[in-house]
From TrEMBL:
Domain of life: Bacteria
TM annotation in the entry: 14-35
Organism for this UniProt entry: Amycolatopsis suaedae
InterPro entries, sorted: Quinoprotein_ADH-like_sf, WD40/YVTN_repeat-like_dom_sf
Gene3D superfamilies according to UniProt: YVTN repeat-like/Quinoprotein amine dehydrogenase
Keywords of this entry: Membrane, Transmembrane, Transmembrane helix
Protein name, entry field: PQQ-binding-like beta-propeller repeat protein
Matches recorded under SUPFAM superfamilies: Quinoprotein alcohol dehydrogenase-like (SSF50998)
Length: 426
């Protein structure tokens, strides 16, 4: 089925995408892999598998449908409001467990070598930030010196090799790896871009933090130019100090969330009558294209602030890949909104996928995965990637593998609500 893309330059056809998205709150950016060429795996063996009962035993008190898996170091951490549970990437064995009081939990963010928890303090304000190391040790915690989040607002957290950047209450702060005082702070004034020009009762709404840029959204209760009372202005900011690089025009912001930001552009998402849609903005924050998606189901992590892109979306460099059940992969260039390629071959019953060097791996029917070239979308037809060793001999479909995380030569798979699986490259 083809539809027309809403494009500020001209309409162009694009395949109707599908995404398991109903509510999305994006905290930063997940970039999996790079655009350098490399050999796709010839196959995977199952190193370990935790079914529903095993997950219940490993995560007592947790609902196995809710935890979000994130990888830090050599452990995969299952995060929810009740606990952090760390499993060994190689064996699936329990490494450590850290209880989290539900009434204290506000959210979390991921770094390359640590997990950052946002906790509620004794004043009922979500302004405490704690760094958790891969061994389960709390390295430090600090009270973020900012105004408390407004109702419905959350702290945006993005770990980096040199520390962590947070945005909350109209302030942007960067903390060193060792904690302590922030390296720098940038305050977003209440009327930073002027009541007279854009509207009245304007304030900071939300943010996304990328590898080389920060995006913020400013909303006005009484906009001057926008047609909707829920309007907003996008801002692109420097990752080095939070200063404004570019401001976009006033646009309708009803239900809009920031999904991804880089120096080359911004991707936002918002609900529509068919489910969900992605909007692309270039480095000057001009909207270049809108791609509609259909929402098949709500994510399991609906009760959590989601710290990654929708499960059917992957990003590598300047390309966004949309994949999932009922369609073949599609690649969109973030900086221009252009449809880069649309796969013509392969299984329609795909699932979540991941970038592996120069290939996009997706799974389909039987016990195999397929590899598409990142640059062209060509299917490597002679390379069926077998998955051997699944415990259930009757189980021949892997198309419900909706979250895959690469860790070196290993892959962690969250299989719907049923199990967690560790794969190792043959």
């Amino acid at each position: 089925m083809r539809i027309f893309v809403e494009d500020s330059r001209r309409p162009k056809p694009v395949v109707l995408l599908a995404a398991a998205v109903a509510v999305v709150v994006a905290l930063g950016v997940v970039v999996i892999g790079w655009l350098d060429r490399g050999d796709a795996p010839s196959g995977f063996d199952v190193a370990w598998e935790l079914d529903g009962q095993a997950l219940d035993n490993a995560t007592p008190g947790q609902d196995p449908r809710n935890p979000v898996p994130v990888v830090i170091g050599d452990v995969v951490v299952l995060v929810d409001r009740q606990a952090l549970v760390a499993l060994d990437v190689a064996t699936g064995g329990l490494r450590w467990r850290m209880p989290v009081t539900e009434d204290r939990y506000c959210g979390f963010g991921q770094g390359p070598d640590a997990l950052y928890l946002n906790l509620r303090d004794d004043n009922d304000e979500c302004l405490t930030l704690a760094r958790i190391e891969p061994d389960g040790r709390e390295a430090w915690r600090t009270r973020v010196g900012a105004a408390p989040p407004a109702p419905g607002e959350r702290m945006v957290i993005a770990g980096r090799p040199d520390g962590v950047v947070v945005v909350v209450g109209g302030s942007i702060m960067a903390y060193p790896v060792t904690g302590g005082d922030p390296k720098w702070t940038h305050t977003i004034p209440v009327n930073d871009w002027g009541d007279s020009a854009y509207g009245y009762d304007c304030r900071f709404v939300d943010a996304a933090i990328g590898a080389d840029a920060i995006a913020t959204r400013i909303g006005c209760a009484e906009p001057v130019f926008a047609t909707s009372s829920d309007s907003a202005v996008l801002e692109l900011r420097a990752i080095e100090d939070g200063s404004v690089r570019q401001r976009g025009p006033v646009t309708s912001g009803r239900g809009q969330v920031l999904l991804h930001v880089s120096g080359g552009g911004v991707v936002t998402g918002s609900p529509d009558e068919t489910g969900f849609r992605l909007a692309f903005h270039d480095a000057q924050l001009r909207q270049t294209a809108v791609y509609p998606l259909t929402a098949a189901s709500a994510p399991r992590s609906l009760q959590l602030p989601v710290t990654e892109l929708p499960q059917d979306i992957r990003i590598s460099g300047d390309l966004l890949f949309a994949l999932g059940a009922g369609r073949r992969p599609v690649a969109i260039r973030i900086s221009t909104g252009e449809l880069e390629w649309q796969a013509e071959d392969g299984e329609d019953a795909g699932c979540g996928g991941l970038v592996w060097d120069g290939a996009l791996l997706v799974c389909g029917e039987e016990r195999t995965m397929s590899a598409y070239e990142l640059a062209t979308g060509d299917l490597e037809a002679d390379q069926d990637i077998d998955v051997d060793g699944l415990a259930d001999p009757e189980r021949t479909l892997i198309s419900n593998w909706d979250r895959l995380l690469r860790v070196g030569d290993r892959v962690i798979v969250q299989d719907g609500d049923e199990s967690l699986i560790g794969l190792v490259r043959k």
